[in-house]
Amino acid sequence: MASHRRPKQPSHGYTSVLTATAAVTVALSAQSASADPLPDPNKKGVQAQVDRLYEQATQATEKYNGAKESAGKLQKEADNLHEEVVRKQAALNELRQQLGSAATAQYRSGGLDPSLQLLLSTDPDAYLDQASGLDRLSARQSDTLQRFLSQQRALQQQRAQAAEKFGSLQETRKELGSKKKEIQGKLAEAQRLLNTLTAEERAERVAKEERANRASERVELGNEASASGRTAAAFNAAKSRVGMPYVWGATGPGSFDCSGLTSWAFQQADVSLPRTSQAQANAGTRINSIGALKPGDLVIMRTDLSHVGFYAGNGQILHAPKPGAQVRYESMARSGMPFMWGVRI
């Protein structure tokens, strides 16, 4: 039969200790509830924010790359226009000297032709309204004068084009500076958040990246149809860069961003690709199915087409993924970026 012995009552001293402990616990709980909660660096939210900032930085990098490419083209066009203006100005000066010699000769022989007077005035274009004056010029002088006026108009037009081109160049350079500032701001904010993590959490994050890099060395690419020709040469060039660091705006050979890797690799195969992932997305034949991809095809990722890499076979992509990572193989399914389409160059 079970015993129903009455439990022993706690001593008065023990009861006092329990009461005091409970009071302290309640007080601390109340204090904690009333105080503003401190940010918890251990939360996965910090890691997610860092990854999102890295993604935004890579997206801004492609816009930066586009602005930089545009600035390069505009600079070349502006330089060519400037050289053309200088050349035409020299030719115009030579014609002016010829016409000046003719005017001097006429003046010495008893008078200066009104047409030449008008030409040497502040408004030589008005000469065309005085075509009847050509009758007093020799055929050679008339031809020289007509060429002078024609070239003068062409020079003015060229100068206007050059000024417009330089204006566009300045606007593009402003955009370039803005994108650069945006990228640096994203990366700085990511670093600030990383600094809120504990040493153990930072070490785990680094270890995770290192595991991903090491896994790249053991990736199984399968026996799918291989690339050929220049595509094979470009793909092999990209393979040789595995382990190189991601650096925004970099085009190799020691560091890359995503489109920097693909454009550099094809350059090694004597194929010129546009600089940005968005432009590379339309640089060849579109492949809409992952199953139809072949190693060496470009893979366009994200809805804004801001990421590109090489299809490596067996569902793997060879790419420069993000800040803090290396050029590596990675499962497309685990990359966190939606597949848009492939491009066969």
Helicity level: 55-70%
Mean pLDDT: 80
Rounded to the nearest angstrom, the distance between the terminal CA atoms is: 89 Å
Order of helices and strands: HHHHHHHHEEEEEE
Strand order of the largest sheet: 1-6-2-3-4-5
Count, helices: 8
Q: Please outline the major beta sheet.
A: 6 strands, antiparallel
Structural class: alpha+beta
Integer-rounded radius of gyration: 37 Å
What is the strand content? 5-15%
Number of strands: 6
| Silhouette | elongated
Spans of at least 5 consecutive residues with low confidence: 1-39, 127-135
Put the structure in a nutshell.
The chain is α+β, with helices and mostly antiparallel strands. It has helices spanning 12-34, 44-108, 114-119, 139-195, 199-217, 229-239, 258-268, 277-280, and strands at residues 285-287, 298-301, 307-313, 316-319, 328-331, 339-344.
